[in-house]
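User: Fold both of these, please.

Assistant: Here is the first one.
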Amino acid sequence: MRKLSLLANVILAIAILISGGCASTKTSEGTGEYFDDSWVTTKVKAALFNEPSLKSAEVNVETFKGEVQLSGFVSSEEDIRKAVALAKEVKGVKSVRNDMRVRGR
């Protein structure tokens, strides 16, 4: 019985140590946040892809803790405004950082 209790305590200690490694910090995401951000990135990419005026755009999307960064090239300033507006509408987006450039400038 003592061995079973000792084994249970060891397993509990290991579980606590492992779950501590999943916590987020200012510069890294926890496991749940990573999957949330991946989902937000996917939804933003889909919104941009489904917008007919942005079909030829080369926009990259990255998300960290709900902050979406848009970068790449578009055809006009209007495309930049449209992409930012679409990203802001996606559930889970806390803010949008625009690093897009108009092609040819």
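And the second sequence with its predicted structure:
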Amino acid sequence: MKIGILGAGQLARMIALSGYPLGLEFIFLDPAADACANPLGQHLQGDYDDPRLLAELAKRADVVTYEFENVPADVAEFLSAHTQVYPPARALAVAQDRLLEKHFFQQLGVPTPAFAPVESWSELLQAMDTIGYPAILKSRTQGYDGKGQSVLKSADDLVCAWQKSDGVSAIVEAFVPFDREVSIIAARNPDGCQVFYPLSENHHRGGILRVAECKANDPLQGQAESYAGRLLTKLNYVGVLALELFDIGGTLMANEFAPRVHNSGHWTIEGTQTSQFENHLRAILNLPLGDVTPIAHAAMVNFIGGLPTRDEVLTIAHAHLHLYAKEPRKGRKVAHATAMAKDLDLFSDCLEQLVKLANKTDCS
């Protein structure tokens, strides 16, 4: 069985690593000659919308998936006419556009911060009269890791933010005073079977995820599962999906969703019976979904821009290192480590050491 993946970055790499024990093979389509997943399968180098390469991918792959949501939705639509593509193209189209995404949440009864579309300077001014300050101006498309976003603390920030946006289609979103940022990873197969991982509590800096910690038995687990389940059902979803949420005094509000495996679920590799990557493969192949019960306390720490030595990580008890075979570069996710231990004190000590090491090597 051969799995085609649009994209060959670290997420594709981890999908492939989880698939080899299942006897799966992989073929990647990615523009980069040095994409880090390349050693794990065949590599078709070229643009995602290259008709010749898409035809070859559709012919050679039994099922196609993707590792990030900025693959053109019409590419997924094209491939769907020739082979199975999961998650469905509709999920990709909704997730790519923040305005469509917000309206989709509203249709499902999933609460969001107040928002307004912005296509011009005059619309921005009108939106601020409605939304108020503080707020965030976000591009409708191509936004990830804080890119395409400007914080609006007062009217003094408007001119600079609009110039920075270069006049692209955007939304203004009210800033909400959240207590926590959390996410839930869910998986669903074509038969409609679905599983939900425990909530991850996430910590960002500079718009980039730094730490994601498993929160087993979180009191908001049921609420998060309800919201994620609505997305899975409405989209007739197949694969892994991540829903990012704000916790505001015990009530959850949706930020965005990602139709793919997600950075906040990396702790599942060591921390659960079945990782998000294996369950993604199980889902798209319509295999029985695996147990998502946590094995122990677990958290993921990202290394951004710079790398520690292997020795620095591996001398920390209960730490598990994942290198992505990517050259260090400012703002780039180049590795992560998992802290995992059944004893809470040992886990906390490991996590603290990993965070210090990540801060030491940070180049974001």
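The domain at 180-361 is CATH 3.30.470.20 (D-amino Acid Aminotransferase; Chain A, domain 1).
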